[in-house]
Task: inverse folding
């Protein structure tokens, strides 16, 4: 028995199986109006379920070349192909695209392998274009990075296929706004990385390593195989992962384009791609992979819609032997993709939900994308018009009712919205009472229903009879708000050279007090009296006598002051809360320059700056050397060194000086070799580019004394222990024809 486990607190709608006809075709069918009935729509259009029910036969086109790319182990680019499954006789211009990638551990597999035919035929029968893609396979199973590159290559191939399809969208009828990536096992892994892995997150191994089949740089994710679609990313809008995984769940949700509704299928006994996490096949040289359990947690943490179906007791790809698993995958995936990717969503329907007989009401529909209203169904009224996003109803019966609104988007996916309404008798419905709380000035009046209301008579009740086309009464309660005379003051602060014009009068340093009367002020056009008393500020001035180092500068009011330009005068305009001018006299104190040169004598570095605090720096790691704070520094290992000097609070740093004490001193060997580590605690490794018939290794100390002499045959890697105390040693490596290499080694 299949065990179904849901890991998300939402329900996937189970649609009733209905037949879809060829009338589910043209966008123009949305606009339908039958004015003599209360149901306005194309019934066949509104009652079909494209993308859920099987309605088409399938046209299959095989072996369409989409790219030329170098496979693993090849130095030549070879063609790669895809198969396209389309709904036969479908006249919809652009259809959602499902891309399927086969499984096979990146070592075997083909676009025709099961379940590709059944899988793609299922989607095409429901109005999708489905594409099964051959991607590059092969890698060195003994090297982790080679396996990483296989995933990366397949992600490049998926993008190349998507670019090809996007470029030829008119030929194949592909809607680039509704692209769903899917795959089994390795194909699922590729689809997940395509969805969530950014270029900057790709394993560094894609740039190449070593000397063998994986040494080449694979290039960018979106620049391989072809140049279609301007080599830009083709976004995916939905994801179906069957037995898939990801190398790092932190990829999920860290970018804006990660909001991709995802449905996951996994058996909890999967030993190939672990249900939780682990190395594929339990093989430690394969990259650690996180399965559907941690992926679903990452999706939940980032509020990305998802559905997780666990097949309890199932292993890896059980649908290959038991079709019931594939049936479940396809049915659940179709419902999920329709609900979260294709279907438009009615956000709101605005209009009166409480109305009355004989009234005509307009209702406006708002959705999350472009749409047209397909059908409007109700009982207590007549639909008089339907437009793209709104419709009109003439209500003719009392009682509770529900308006059913069905909308369609440009790919004929639909959404249904139910709007409850309450229809009553017209006079009972209309508001028969009201209020007048008008605001008036102290010297004003209002005449309401023949009664004069003013400051001394500002409350009352008026009854209006036979109002409106229905002859209903209305009672209005009067309560006026009478405003007092307005008064205020203006105590603004201005600069000495400024002025204010208030109500046509100029106020300045010589005319800073007065009284102004403003007429028809505010929303009620009342008078306002303003008393003027301005505060006039004096001119501002100051000085700047800052101390700076010889290599420093100050930018004051846009002028650069330094050792060669340390005096001047600056006028700052619009300064302070009142934007006045301020004059600043500049006279800087410039300290003497620091000598950053270094004298190098053997392993001894000496700063040529006399006086100050010294701190020597290891340039190779970019950090201070602990305890080295004297003017003289004696080097004990190869590297690049500099000194930072602090003199009277001024800090400057010298250039980096290179000191070489250890490493390769002489090399006659025709074959490449490496010796590491150096320095060492005692154990070193000597590695040749190919196997050596005979190698003699002699080790001498600094005094020229022979420490060890060893003979090795038929080797390409030699491990060697350096006997003796800490210090420098010379390692001489000779081959059978007398060639030699000499290394200087530091044992610590």
Result:
């Amino acid at each position: 028995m299949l065990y179904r486990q849901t890991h998300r607190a939402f329900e996937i709608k189970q649609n009733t199986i209905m037949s879809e006809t060829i009338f589910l075709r043209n966008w123009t069918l949305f606009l339908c109006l039958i004015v003599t009935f209360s149901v306005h729509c194309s019934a066949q259009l509104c009652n079909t379920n494209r993308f859920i029910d099987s309605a088409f036969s399938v046209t299959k086109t095989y072996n369409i070349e989409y790219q030329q790319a170098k496979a693993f182990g090849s130095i030549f680019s070879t063609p790669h192909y895809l198969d396209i499954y389309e709904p036969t006789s479908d006249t919809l211009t652009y259809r959602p695209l499902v891309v399927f990638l086969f499984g096979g551990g990146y070592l075997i597999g083909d676009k025709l392998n099961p379940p590709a035919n059944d899988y793609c035929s299922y989607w095409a029968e429901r109005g999708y274009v489905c594409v099964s893609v051959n991607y590059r396979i092969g890698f060195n199973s003994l090297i982790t990075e080679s396996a990483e590159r296989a995933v990366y290559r397949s992600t490049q191939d998926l993008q190349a296929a998507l670019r090809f399809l996007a470029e030829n969208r008119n030929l194949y009828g592909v809607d680039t706004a509704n692209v769903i990536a899917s795959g089994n096992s390795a194909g699922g892994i590729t689809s997940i990385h395509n969805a969530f892995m950014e270029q900057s997150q790709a394993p560094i191994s894609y740039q190449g390593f070593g000397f063998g089949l994986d040494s080449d740089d694979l290039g960018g994710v979106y620049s391989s195989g072809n140049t279609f679609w301007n080599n830009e990313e083709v976004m995916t809008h939905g994801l179906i992962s069957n037995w898939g995984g990801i190398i790092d769940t932190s990829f999920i949700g860290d970018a804006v384009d990660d909001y991709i509704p995802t449905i996951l299928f996994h058996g909890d006994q999967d030993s190939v791609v672990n249900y939780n996490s682990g190395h594929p096949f339990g093989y430690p040289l394969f990259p650690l992979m996180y399965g559907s359990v941690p992926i679903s947690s990452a999706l939940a943490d980032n509020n990305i819609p998802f559905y997780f179906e666990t097949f309890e007791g199932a292993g890896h790809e059980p649908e290959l032997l038991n079709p019931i698993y594939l049936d479940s995958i396809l049915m659940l995936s179709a419902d999920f993709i329709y609900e979260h990717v294709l279907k438009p969503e009615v956000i709101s329907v605005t209009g009166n939900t409480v109305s009355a007989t004989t009234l005509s009401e307009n209702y406006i529909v708002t959705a999350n994308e472009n749409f047209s209203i397909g059908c409007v169904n109700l009982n207590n009224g007549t639909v008089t018009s339907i437009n793209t996003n709104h419709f009109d109803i003439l209500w003719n019966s009392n009682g509770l009712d529900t308006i059913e609104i069905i909308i369609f988007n440009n790919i004929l996916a639909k959404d249904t919205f139910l709007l409850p309404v309450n229809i009553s008798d017209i006079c009972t419905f209309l508001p028969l009472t009201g209020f007048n709380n008008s605001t008036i000035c102290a010297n004003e009046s209002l005449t309401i229903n023949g009664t004069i209301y003013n400051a001394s008579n500002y409350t009352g009740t008026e009854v209006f009879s036979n109002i409106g086309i229905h002859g209903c009464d209305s009672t209005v309660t009067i309560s006026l708000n009478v405003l007092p005379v307005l008064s205020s003051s203006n105590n603004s602060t201005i600069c000495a050279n400024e002025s204010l014009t208030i109500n046509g009068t100029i106020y300045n340093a010589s005319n800073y007090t007065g009284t102004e009367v403003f007429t028809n002020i505010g929303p009620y056009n009342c008078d306002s009296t303003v008393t003027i008393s301005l505060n006039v500020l004096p001119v501002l001035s100051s000085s700047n006598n800052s101390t700076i180092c010889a290599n420093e500068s100050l930018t004051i009011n846009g002028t650069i002051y330094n050792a060669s330009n340390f005096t001047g005068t600056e006028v700052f305009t619009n300064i302070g809360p009142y934007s006045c001018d301020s004059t600043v006299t500049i006279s800087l104190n410039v300290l003497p320059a620091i000598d950053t040169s270094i004298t190098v004598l053997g392993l001894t570095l000496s700063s040529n700056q006399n006086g100050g605090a010294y701190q020597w720096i290891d340039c190779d790691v970019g950090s201070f050397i602990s305890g080295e704070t004297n003017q003289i520094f004696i080097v004990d290992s190869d590297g690049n060194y500099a000194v930072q000097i602090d003199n009277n609070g001024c800090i400057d740093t010298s250039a980096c000086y290179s000191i070489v004490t250890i490493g390769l001193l002489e090399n006659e060997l025709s074959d490449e070799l490496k010796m590491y580590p150096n320095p060492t605690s005692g154990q070193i490794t000597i590695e040749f580019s190919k196997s050596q018939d005979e190698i003699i290794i002699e080790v001498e100390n600094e005094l020229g004394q022979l420490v060890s002499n060893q003979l090795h045959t038929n080797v390409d890697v030699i491990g060697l222990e350096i006997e003796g105390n800490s210090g420098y040693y010379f390692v001489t490596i000779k081959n059978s024809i007398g060639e030699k290499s000499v290394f200087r080694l530091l044992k610590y």
User: Anything to note?
Assistant: Residues 430-482 form one domain. Residues 144-167 form the longest helix (24 residues).
